[in-house]
From TrEMBL:
The chain crosses the membrane at residues 12-30, 42-58, 70-89, 95-111, 116-133, 153-177. It comes from Bacterioplanoides pacificum. It catalyses: ATP + protein L-histidine = ADP + protein N-phospho-L-histidine. Residues 305-407 form the Histidine kinase/HSP90-like ATPase domain. This is histidine kinase. SUPFAM superfamilies: ATPase domain of HSP90 chaperone/DNA topoisomerase II/histidine kinase.
Length: 410
C-alpha cells in the first residue's frame, strides 16, 4: 500500500480510538456507578489508549511508513481490547464484537499475510475470553450480573455494539475508499503524464537526429554556392545567388538556435508578459514577413515564467493561427483567476473548417492533436498552464493560452 494511504488509515484509526475510548469511559463509569468491583485494571488499560492515540496521530504525519507499522498498531489494539474485555466479563461482554471492526481495517489496509496474522490473533483472544475472564461482580462479591438481568444487559450491550459498529463502518470506510479512489486518480494522472513525457522524448530524439542530419547537406550547399559565386559564368543572377546563400545561412542559424535552446530549455526564470509577447511578435515577423496581427489590447502588466520552451510554444500557436486563414490574427491579453491569458483569434470564416478537418484538440484532449499544438500544449503544461482551442459559430477560430501569474522577484 502507498505511504499516503497508510498515513490516512493511521489518522482515521486515531479518530476511531478516540470514539472507542469515549464509549469505554462511559461504560466503565456506568459499571463503577452501579457498584461493580475490581475495575481498577480496566481503568489502567483504558488509560493506555491515550498514548496509543498520540502515537498513531504522530506517526500518521510521517512519510516513511511501512505495512508493519499498521500491523503493530492493530496488534497492540487487539491486545488492549482483550485486556479490557478480560476484566469486564470476557466473551459475555457485547463489546467483543469490536474485534470485527479491527479486522475490517486490517483487510482494507494490509496484505493477505498480515491480515491473516491479525485474524489469528483476534480468534485466539476471542477463544481465550470464552474460557478465562473476570466476571462482573458487585461490591459485596456475592451477587453478579445474574441478579441484574444478565440476558437483558447482554441484549442492550449487543444493540449498542451494533450501533457503534454500524456508525464506524458507514463513517470511516467510505472516507478511506474515497481517499483511495482519489489516489488512484492521481496515479492514473501520473501514468498519463509519464506516457506523454515518453512520447515527447521520442519526438525530441527524432527532431535532434533530423537536425543533425540536416547539418551536412546545408554545409554542402553552402560550399557549392561559394564555388558557384567564384565562377564568372554561373547561370544564376546575383539576386538569386544572394537569396540562396541567405536561405542556407538562415537554416544553419535556425539549427544552431535549436541546439542552444535545447541546452537551456529547462533554465527558467520570470519575465514581463507584454515585453515577452512584443519580442516574440518581432521575431515572428522576421520569419513570416507577410504575417499581420491586430492589437486588441495586449498591454497587460503581468509576470509569467520565462523559458525557451514557452517561446517556441507561442510561436507555434501564432503560426497555426496565421495558417488557418487569410486575415490578420487578433490578439488580446488579460488577467483572470491568477492566470495571464492570451487570446489568438483568426477571424477568417474558413478557419473553423480547417480545425475540424485537422481534428485538433478543443480542450485538454490529445487525441488527433497536430504535432505543433501537441508539443506547445505539453510545454505550457510543464509551467502549470494550458491551451484551449475552439471553433466559433461564425467560422472563426480562437486559441487561448493561460500561464500562472508570478509575483515579482519570486
Amino acid at each position: 500500500m502507498m505511504n499516503n494511504d497508510l498515513n490516512l488509515v493511521l489518522r482515521r484509526l486515531a479518530l476511531l480510538r478516540i470514539s472507542i475510548a469515549s464509549v469505554w469511559l462511559m461504560f466503565l463509569g456506568y459499571l463503577q456507578y452501579q457498584g461493580f468491583d475490581k475495575l481498577e485494571p480496566a481503568w489502567l488499560l483504558l488509560a493506555l489508549y491515550m498514548p496509543l492515540m498520540l502515537v498513531s496521530i504522530w506517526q500518521g504525519q510521517q512519510r516513511k511508513l511501512k505495512d508493519w507499522h499498521l500491523l503493530l498498531h492493530l496488534a497492540l489494539e487487539t491486545q488492549l481490547l482483550a485486556g479490557l474485555l478480560f476484566f469486564t466479563g470476557g466473551a459475555t461482554n457485547p463489546f467483543i464484537s469490536y474485534f470485527l471492526v479491527l479486522l475490517v481495517f486490517a483487510a482494507y489496509s494490509l496484505n493477505n499475510r498480515m491480515t491473516l496474522w491479525i485474524t489469528l490473533l483476534c480468534i485466539v483472544d476471542y477463544s481465550t475470553l470464552t474460557q478465562w475472564y473476570q466476571p462482573l461482580l458487585s461490591a459485596d462479591h456475592q451477587h453478579g450480573l445474574h441478579n441484574r438481568s444478565l440476558f437483558d444487559w447482554h441484549l442492550a450491550g449487543m444493540w449498542l455494539t451494533f450501533v457503534i459498529s454500524a456508525l464506524i463502518v458507514i463513517t470511516f470506510i467510505p472516507m478511506l475508499l474515497r481517499a483511495r479512489q482519489q489516489q488512484q486518480k492521481e496515479i492514473q494522472s501520473l501514468r498519463e503524464q509519464q506516457l506523454k513525457n515518453e512520447q515527447l522524448i521520442g519526438i525530441a530524439t527524432l527532431a535532434a537526429g533530423t537536425a543533425h542530419e540536416m547539418g551536412t547537406p546545408l554545409m554542402t550547399m553552402h560550399m557549392i554556392l561559394d564555388d558557384i559565386a567564384q565562377q564568372p559564368d554561373h547561370p544564376l543572377t546575383k539576386q538569386d545567388l544572394h537569396l540562396l546563400r541567405e536561405q542556407v545561412a538562415s537554416c544553419r542559424q535556425s539549427l544552431q538556435h535549436l541546439a542552444n535552446a535545447g541546452r537551456h530549455a529547462h533554465e527558467t526564470g520570470q519575465q514581463d508578459a507584454y515585453h515577452w509577447l512584443c519580442t516574440l511578435l518581432h521575431r515572428w515577423r522576421l520569419s513570416h514577413p507577410n504575417a499581420l496581427w491586430v492589437d486588441n489590447g495586449i498591454n497587460t502588466s503581468a509576470q509569467v515564467a520565462a523559458s525557451p520552451l514557452l517561446d517556441q510554444a507561442l510561436l507555434n500557436l501564432l503560426d497555426n493561427a496565421a495558417e488557418a486563414g487569410h486575415q490578420p490574427i487578433e490578439l488580446n491579453s488579460s488577467q483572470q483567476d491568477g492566470f495571464w491569458q492570451l487570446t489568438i483569434r483568426q477571424p477568417d470564416a474558413h478557419a473553423a473548417t480547417q480545425i475540424r478537418q485537422q481534428a485538433l484538440f478543443s480542450s485538454a484532449k490529445e487525441h488527433g492533436m497536430g504535432i505543433g499544438l501537441y508539443l506547445s500544449n505539453a510545454s505550457v503544461e510543464q509551467f502549470g498552464g494550458h491551451i484551449h482551442l475552439t471553433a466559433e459559430e461564425n467560422g472563426a477560430s480562437r486559441c487561448c493560452i493561460r500561464l500562472p501569474l508570478l509575483s515579482p522577484g519570486s
